[in-house]
């Protein structure tokens, strides 16, 4: 999840401690498309709305960095 999605989707994630958090969207070539989160966030569940109306169909990756933990997931945009 969220695969595939059509222009808008919600990315949900959980943090196990309060820390500076970044959530970045990349295209398949590794180019940074958007910074969705760049702030200190508290422990718990969070969600971010992604509006990809201006992006072409294709494969994208989102990378969640919080403290010393990094998670990357693939998602597919179908218009």
Overall geometry? elongated
Q: How much helix, percentage-wise, in residues?
A: under 10%
What is the percentage of strand-forming residues?
over 45%
Low-confidence stretches: none
Q: Note the run of SSEs as H and E.
A: EEEEEE
What does the average pLDDT come to?
A: 95
DSSP helical segment count: 0
For the largest sheet, list the strands in their spatial order: 3-2-5-6
Rounded to an integer, what's the Rg over CA atoms?
12 Å
Structural class: mainly beta
Q: N-to-C terminal Cα separation, in Å?
A: 17 Å
Could you give a short account of the major beta sheet?
Answer: 4 strands, antiparallel
* E-strand count: 6
Task: Describe how the helices and strands are arranged.
Blueprint: E1 8-15, E2 19-27, E3 32-41, E4 44-51, E5 58-66, E6 69-77
Antiparallel strand pairs: 1-4, 2-3, 2-5, 5-6
Report on the structure:
The protein is elongated, with a radius of gyration of 12 Å. 0% of the residues lie in helices and 67% in strands. The strands form two sheets. The protein has a four-stranded antiparallel beta sheet with strand order 3-2-5-6, with no helix packed on it. It has a two-stranded antiparallel ribbon with strand order 1-4. The mean pLDDT is 95. β2 and β3 (32-41) form a beta hairpin. It has no helices and six strands. The chain is mainly β.
In short:
Helix content is 0%, strand content 67%. It has 79 residues and is mainly beta.
Features:
79 residues; mainly beta; 4-stranded antiparallel beta sheet; two-stranded antiparallel ribbon; 67% strand
């Amino acid at each position: 999840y969220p695969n595939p999605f059509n222009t808008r989707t919600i990315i949900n994630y959980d943090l196990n401690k309060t820390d500076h958090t970044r959530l970045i969207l990349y295209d398949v070539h590794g180019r940074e498309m958007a910074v969705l989160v760049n702030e200190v966030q508290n422990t718990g569940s969070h969600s971010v709305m992604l509006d990809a109306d201006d992006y072409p169909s294709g494969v994208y990756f989102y990378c969640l960095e919080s403290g010393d933990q990094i998670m990357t997931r693939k998602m597919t945009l179908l218009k």
